[in-house]
Amino acid sequence: MIRYLAKLFNALAKRQRSPVKQSSVTKLDSGLTHNLKHIMDELGNGSDVVNRQFLIGRSAPVLAGVIFIDGLVDQEMINDNILQPLLRIELERPVDLDVLEKSFLAVGGLKRVETMETLVEGVLTGDTALLIDGQPSALLLSTKKWEQRGISEPDTEVIVKGARDGFTETLRTNTALLRRRIEHPALRFDTMKIGKKTRTEICVAYIQGVAEDKLVEEVKKRLRRIDTAGILSTESIDQFIDDAPFSPFATVGYTERPDVCAAKLMEGRVAIIVDGTPVVHTVPFLFWESFQSPDDYNFRLFYANTMRWIRYLAFFTSVLLPGVYVALSSYHQELIPTNLLISMAAATEGTPFPAVVEALGMGVVFEILREAGIRLPRPVGQAVSIVGALVIGEATVTAGLVGAPVVIVVALTAIASFLVPSQVESAAFLRVVFTCLAGVFGALGIINGLIFVYIHLASLRSFGVPFLAPVAPIVPADLKDVAVRVPIWMMWTRPKSIDSPDRIRQAMRIRPEVPEEGHDDDRS
Q1: In sequence order, what are the residues at sequence separation of 6 or more whose Cβ sits closer than 8 angstroms to the Cβ of residue 155?
Q2: How far is residue 239's CA from residue 458's CA, in Å, rounded to a whole number?
Q3: Phi and psi at residue 51, to the nearest 5°
Q4: Which residue, 194, 184, 183, is CA-closest to 273?
Q5: Of 203, 222, 289, which Cα lies nearest the Cα of 254?
């Protein structure tokens, strides 16, 4: 068996080291009929592929043809800006692509191609191919237009103050939303295509001179290394480039809001935009970003800091509350006030299961209700989540299966978990772990679990940046937006942890000043 596995690993290693065969390149032929047939065969003669042939010129007419995919193009543009000008040509001399390109085609995007692969790829992305008999090259005309969802506010990142627009499934719409917020020529959008079958367009966005060159190159390197049949979402990219794929904590951030993405770009981060997905990834991603909200910078200082501390409290509550309850009720009853202990004992008298089983069981029921509320249609899902929680909670307590304190603990845990959406997955996993540790070892298990989690967090990196920065390692200059948010006019430097080449974000002495007393305007 060991020999067989060794041979298998050696064969895989040789296959990995073997040079990749270069795909053959097919040059376009000068015959129009041959080119059109080859293209139609490549596209499978689909019913959505339109092949239109016509004559150009009066004295010496030349056969031409256009190919495009119905549903991906603007047919009005094709009719008005391509077909009509070509059908009305009255030149006496023979017509070629140079003449058409410079004098007749009223299309903004135009590119000449000479290979069949490039031509087919352009048609599949919504361009229109123009071919002329006797010409060994063709023109790809930009006529992209397809049905798309309008710009709307994201459901997962709702705010009280601020912009109401969100990313959509169209790549160019997303890049335009960022251009509207960062009107600077240093904003770069470098595109590449990933996926042998899907050929998904990926865009790497950054601000040149603000984002570190090594970071940009590292992002592109990880993306180029992806060798798969298809990429259908941003989450697929996330799993290929994550620094710690087996960690419960994500080291790649995400957002559906253009203003949040623009703010991260201004700090020196890099954004990854995937065509067909309204979610944009940003790297590097730090742990403390999960507790920041756009409203923190829209509300006044003290209220914003209060809400941030409530998020910290809610996260630790959602992770530790069931475990703390199990530890106190099972091992450390002396720490519970006497009156509360008597009430808990009366409420749990006669229940058949220990506290750890009750907490885990009710936690599973809550996750089932939450998942049902998400997957079902919105009106039905809300009814299932609310009515189901009330009915099941009341029925289990009345039947004596679980005690009322467990229902209260699980309900508080569920509400607290919604305050930090980006850490819902990690909180759900850690909640089960700490509950099991508390059920076996009590408070000692919780303390050891916290130490292990902290060590794990301190060992994580996000594209070379420590995940807990600027707390571990501590960077005093970056603590202005972690535990509390200082006034905006004090954030005059970009985060040192990101290592941006341009550290200065704004002028230093721009604190608002009160005018001196006695300086009144002259009045007539």
Answers
A1: none
A2: 21
A3: -120, 105
A4: 194
A5: 289
Give residue 31's pLDDT: 87
Distance CA 162, CA 160 (A): 7
Read off the tokens for 123: 């048609």
| Cα gap 85→56, rounded to integer Å | 10
Q: Which residues contact 189 (CB under 8 A, 6 or more apart)?
A: 175, 203, 204, 205, 273
Q: What is the 3-state secondary structure (H, E, C) of 399-429?
A: HCCCCHHHHHHHHHHHHHHCCCHHHHHHHHH
d(CA 51, CA 129): 10
- In the DSSP assignment, the letter for residue 79 is I
Distance CA 6, CA 130 (A): 54
Tokens of 517: 């007393």
| Reduced DSSP (H G I as helix, E B as strand, rest coil) percent helix, strand, coil of the chain, to 5 | 50, 15, 40
pTM value > 0.90 = no
Domain edges within the chain? 32-141, 171-285, 297-466
pLDDT of residue 236: 84
CB atoms within 10 A of CB 266: 17
Q: Are 89 and 78 in contact (CB under 8 A)?
A: no
Tell me the pLDDT tens digit for each residue of 358-373.
999 888 888 888 887 7
Distance of alpha carbon 83 from alpha carbon 359, whole angstroms: 70
Residues paired with 51 in a beta bridge: 67
Block residue for tokens 């009430």: 343
Cis geometry, peptide bond prior to residue 473 (ω within 30 degrees of 0): yes
Cβ-in-10-Å burial (0-12, 13-18, 19+) of 474 comes to exposed
**CA 461 – CA 464 distance, rounded (Å):** 5
Q: What is the DSSP string of 281-347?
A: EEES--GGGGG--GGGGTS-HHHHHHHHHHHHHHHHHHHHHHHHHHHHHHT-GGGS-HHHHHHHHHH
Q: Is 496 exposed, middle or buried (0-12, 13-18, 19+ CB in 10 A)?
A: middle
Model confidence at 4, in pLDDT bands (50, 70, 90)? low
With CA atoms as reference, report the closest residue to 279 among 436, 102, 118, 157. Answer: 157
pLDDT for 415-441, tens place per residue? 898 899 889 999 999 999 999 999 999
Q: 58 — phi, psi (to 5°)?
A: -105, -60
